[in-house]
UniProtKB/TrEMBL annotation:
SUPFAM superfamilies: Ferritin-like. Residues 10-144 form the Ferritin/DPS domain. It comes from the Bacteria. Belongs to the Dps family. Pfam families: Ferritin. This is DNA starvation/stationary phase protection protein. GO terms for molecular function: ferric iron binding; oxidoreductase activity, acting on metal ions. InterPro entries: DPS_DNA-bd, DPS_DNA-bd_CS, Ferritin-like, Ferritin-like_SF, Ferritin_DPS_dom. CDD domains: DPS (cd01043). It comes from Roseibium aggregatum.
Length: 147
């Protein structure tokens, strides 16, 4: 395997780990959010965690298609995911922490799109571009709520 192909797989694994961590974080906020915007946020977080859950399968199976094993334990996924956010203190804090996590993941996805391009892997570049499009739209909507 070339180093470009390895970097491509490594970045896909990092995107998988970060997506897993954000999935757990978002589902937890869906359960625990409180306050006057409860119903709206409870529903938004559900839409987000469902999207993230489906993305996990797509990214992991792309890793398999490229001939590598997908990280398949909580420990392996969390080791790829970076630092866990501190517990959120309020609904506004949950939104702020999600904005940070989506921005970090968007940066990983941009690295992944570049790595896929270097490796000549248009399909992974397309998958990661679709993921980035979704995260950018969620970021816009979450930031618009804070103004
Ligand atoms: Fe629920």
């Amino acid at each position: 395997m070339t180093s470009a192909a390895q970097t491509n797989i490594d970045t896909l694994k990092k995107a998988l780990g970060e997506t897993f961590r954000l999935y757990v974080q978002t589902h937890g906020y869906h359960w625990n959010v409180e306050g006057p915007n409860f119903r709206q946020l409870h529903n938004v977080f559900e839409e987000q965690y469902r999207n993230l859950w489906n993305a996990l399968d797509e990214i992991a199976e792309r890793i398999r298609i490229l001939g590598a094993h997908a990280p398949g334990s909580v420990a392996d996924l969390m080791a790829l995911a970076g630092e866990e956010a501190a517990p959120a203190q309020s609904a506004d804090d949950m939104t702020a922490k999600l904005i940070d996590a989506h921005e970090a993941l968007a940066a990983t996805l941009r690295d992944g799109i570049a790595a896929a391009g270097e490796a000549g892997d248009e399909v992974s570049a397309g998958l990661l571009t679709d993921r980035l499009e979704w995260h950018e739209k969620e970021l816009w909507m979450m930031k618009a709520c804070k103004r």
